[in-house]
Write a sequence for this structure.
C-alpha cells in the first residue's frame, strides 16, 4: 500500500482546531443522560467527573456556580441528565462536556435528591423540634397560601366555616406546581410579608399528586424561605403518606387540608359550651359564697341571741306573756267564783228567813226587856227582903242587946264567950258595952247556974 | 401589647379591674377564666375578693363570648396590592370545581 496521496499535512493543533470548529457548534446545549463516576470536587468548587454508560464515557465539568444552582448535589454513581456543551481542548486533546445544569435522572434520583437535601437541612437544624412553634389555639386570622382553584381551598374554607366561622380567612393565591411555582410562592409571601403580623397562623396547602407534582415543595429556596416565617405555619401538602421537605420545616404538618383547618379551628359549639359551663360554675360559686355568708350571719345571730340582754328580753317577753295568761286565768276564775257566789247569795237570799228573824229578834228584845224588868223587880224584892231582914236582924243584933244594957264578953282572941267555964281566973277578957269596951281579968268563976232559969223560954237566946 | 381603651373593648367600670387587651389570645383569656372559677369554687376568699374576682370572671367571659361572635364569613384576598374583600371565594371555588364533580 502506497500512501501516494500526500495531502498537505496538518499540524496537530490545526487538526484539533478544525475538529473543534466543526464539532462544537453542533453540540451546544445538548442533553445527555449517564452515570456520574470519578467525581472530584476541586477546591475552586468545580466538579470534575465522567459521565458514562455501559460502553462509553465523557469527561464533564460542572462549574461551582452552576453546581450551586442545582437542586441536588452530584454524587458518585448517581444517574443524571445533564445539559451542556461539548468543548474540545486542543492542548490536552480531550473532549469535555461543560455542564450548565443537571437533573437527577429517573424517579430514584428524585428520592436521592430528596434524601440529600433533607439530610443537609436536618444537619443545619432546620427540622429541630425546638424550632417549632406552638399553633394558636383559636387564631383570629389565618392566611391560606394555596391555589385559588382546586378542591383544596374549598376544603379548607368549608372546614373552617363548619367548625368555627369566627376564624377570619385570607387567601394568598399561588401556583402549586410547575417549574416556577417554588419561586412564585416565595415571591408572593414576600410581597405581603408586612401583613403577616396581623395573622396568627399560615397554611401552605396543596392537593395530592405525583412526586413530580409535589416537587415544588422540596425546592430548597422555598423550604428555606418558609423556615424564616415570622408566624407559625402548617403544611398540608399532598396526601397522607406524602412527605415533602416543607412538611419537615413546618411548625406542624397536617395530613390533609381538612386536618389543617381542624387544627386551627376549635369547635365553636364546644367553645360556647365550655364558656357557658365556666359561667355557671362561677355564678354558682358566688351564690354558694353568698349563701355561706348568710348562714354565717344567721349563726352569728343565733350566737348573739344567747347574749344576756337578748336572753333577758326574750325571757321578759315570755314572762309578760305568761303573766298575761295567768292574769286572764285568775280573772276568769275570780269572775267565775264571784258569779258562783252571787248565785249562791241570791239563792240564799231567796231562802233566808229574814222576816222570821225579825220577829224572833223582836221577841228576843221583848224577852230581854221582860227579863230586865223581872230582874229589876226581883232585885227590888230582894232588896226589900234584905231591908226587912236587915231590920229584923238589926233587931236581933247583939249590939242591940247592948242597947238593952247587956254586954258581950270576948276572950283575948276576940272570940265571944258564952260560958263562964270558958274563962279561968286570971284570964284576960274584954267586955263590949253599948258605949265602949273594957278589958278585965277574971277574979273568980262560978258556973253551972243560970241566972235566968226563971225567965220565959220564949226569948231568943242564941247569941252567936 | 397595647392596652385597648375603646369603650367597646374595655370591660372595667370598677377601679382595679383592668381592661383586657384586644390582642389577648382566646386561650389565655379562657385559662384565666378557669383560674378565676377555680378560686371562687375553693371558697376561702373574703366576700369582697370574691366579688372582685367574679367581676373579673364576667369580664373575661364577655371577652371570650365576643370572640365567638361571627362577624364576617367572607374570605379576603391578600396580594401585593393589599387586602381585598371578594365575594365569597367558596362560590368561585365551587364553580371551578363544578365540572370535576367535587363538592
Amino acid at each position: 500500500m502506497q500512501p501516494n496521496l500526500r495531502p498537505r499535512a496538518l499540524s496537530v493543533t490545526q487538526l484539533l482546531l478544525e475538529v473543534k470548529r466543526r464539532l462544537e457548534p453542533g453540540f451546544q446545549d445538548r442533553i445527555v443522560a449517564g452515570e456520574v463516576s470519578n467525581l472530584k470536587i476541586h477546591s475552586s468548587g468545580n466538579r470534575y467527573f465522567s459521565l458514562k454508560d455501559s460502553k462509553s464515557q465523557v469527561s464533564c465539568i460542572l462549574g461551582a456556580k452552576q453546581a450551586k444552582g442545582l437542586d441536588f448535589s452530584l454524587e458518585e454513581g448517581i444517574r443524571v441528565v445533564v445539559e451542556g456543551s461539548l468543548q474540545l481542548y486542543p492542548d490536552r486533546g480531550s473532549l469535555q462536556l461543560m455542564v450548565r445544569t443537571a437533573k437527577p435522572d429517573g424517579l430514584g434520583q428524585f428520592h436521592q435528591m430528596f434524601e440529600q437535601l433533607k439530610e443537609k437541612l436536618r444537619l443545619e437544624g432546620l427540622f429541630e423540634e425546638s424550632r417549632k412553634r406552638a399553633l394558636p389555639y383559636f387564631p383570629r386570622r389565618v392566611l391560606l397560601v394555596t391555589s385559588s382553584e382546586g378542591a383544596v381551598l374549598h376544603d379548607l374554607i368549608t372546614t373552617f366555616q363548619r367548625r368555627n366561622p369566627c376564624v377570619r380567612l385570607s387567601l394568598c393565591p399561588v401556583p402549586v406546581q410547575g417549574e416556577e411555582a417554588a419561586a412564585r410562592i416565595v415571591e408572593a409571601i414576600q410581597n405581603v410579608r408586612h401583613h403577616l403580623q396581623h395573622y396568627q397562623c399560615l397554611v401552605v396547602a396543596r392537593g395530592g399528586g405525583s412526586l413530580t407534582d409535589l416537587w415544588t415543595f422540596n425546592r430548597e429556596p422555598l423550604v428555606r424561605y418558609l423556615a424564616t416565617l415570622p408566624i407559625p405555619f402548617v403544611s398540608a401538602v399532598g396526601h397522607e403518606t406524602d412527605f415533602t421537605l416543607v412538611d419537615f420545616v413546618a411548625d406542624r404538618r397536617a395530613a390533609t387540608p381538612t386536618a389543617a383547618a381542624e387544627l386551627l379551628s376549635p369547635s365553636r359549639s364546644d367553645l360556647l359550651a365550655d364558656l357557658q359551663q365556666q359561667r355557671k360554675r362561677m355564678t354558682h360559686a358566688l351564690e354558694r359564697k353568698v349563701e355561706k355568708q348568710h348562714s354565717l350571719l344567721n349563726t352569728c345571730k343565733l350566737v348573739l341571741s344567747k347574749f344576756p340582754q337578748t336572753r333577758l328580753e326574750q325571757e321578759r317577753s315570755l314572762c309578760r306573756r305568761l303573766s298575761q295568761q295567768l292574769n286572764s286565768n285568775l280573772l276568769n276564775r275570780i269572775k267565775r267564783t264571784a258569779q258562783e257566789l252571787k248565785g249562791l247569795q241570791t239563792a240564799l237570799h231567796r231562802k233566808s228567813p229574814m222576816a222570821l228573824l225579825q220577829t224572833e229578834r223582836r221577841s228576843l228584845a221583848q224577852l230581854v226587856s221582860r227579863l230586865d224588868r223581872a230582874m229589876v223587880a226581883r232585885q227590888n224584892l230582894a232588896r226589900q227582903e234584905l231591908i226587912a231582914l236587915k231590920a229584923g236582924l238589926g233587931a236581933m243584933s247583939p249590939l242591940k242587946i247592948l242597947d238593952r244594957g247587956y254586954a258581950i264578953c270576948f276572950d283575948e282572941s276576940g272570940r265571944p264567950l258564952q260560958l263562964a267555964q270558958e274563962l279561968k281566973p286570971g284570964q284576960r277578957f274584954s267586955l263590949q258595952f253599948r258605949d265602949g269596951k273594957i278589958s278585965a281579968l277574971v277574979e273568980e268563976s262560978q258556973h253551972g247556974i243560970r241566972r235566968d232559969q226563971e225567965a220565959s223560954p220564949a226569948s231568943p237566946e242564941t247569941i252567936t | 401589647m397595647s392596652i385597648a381603651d375603646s369603650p367597646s373593648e374595655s370591660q372595667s367600670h370598677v377601679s382595679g379591674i383592668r381592661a383586657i387587651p384586644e390582642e389577648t389570645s382566646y386561650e389565655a383569656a379562657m385559662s384565666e377564666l378557669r383560674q378565676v372559677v377555680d378560686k371562687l369554687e375553693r371558697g376561702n376568699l373574703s366576700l369582697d375578693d370574691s366579688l372582685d374576682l367574679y367581676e373579673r370572671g364576667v369580664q373575661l367571659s364577655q371577652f371570650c363570648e365576643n370572640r365567638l361572635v361571627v362577624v364576617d364569613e367572607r374570605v379576603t384576598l391578600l396580594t401585593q396590592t393589599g387586602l381585598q374583600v371578594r365575594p365569597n371565594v367558596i362560590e368561585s371555588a365551587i364553580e371551578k370545581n363544578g365540572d370535576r364533580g367535587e363538592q
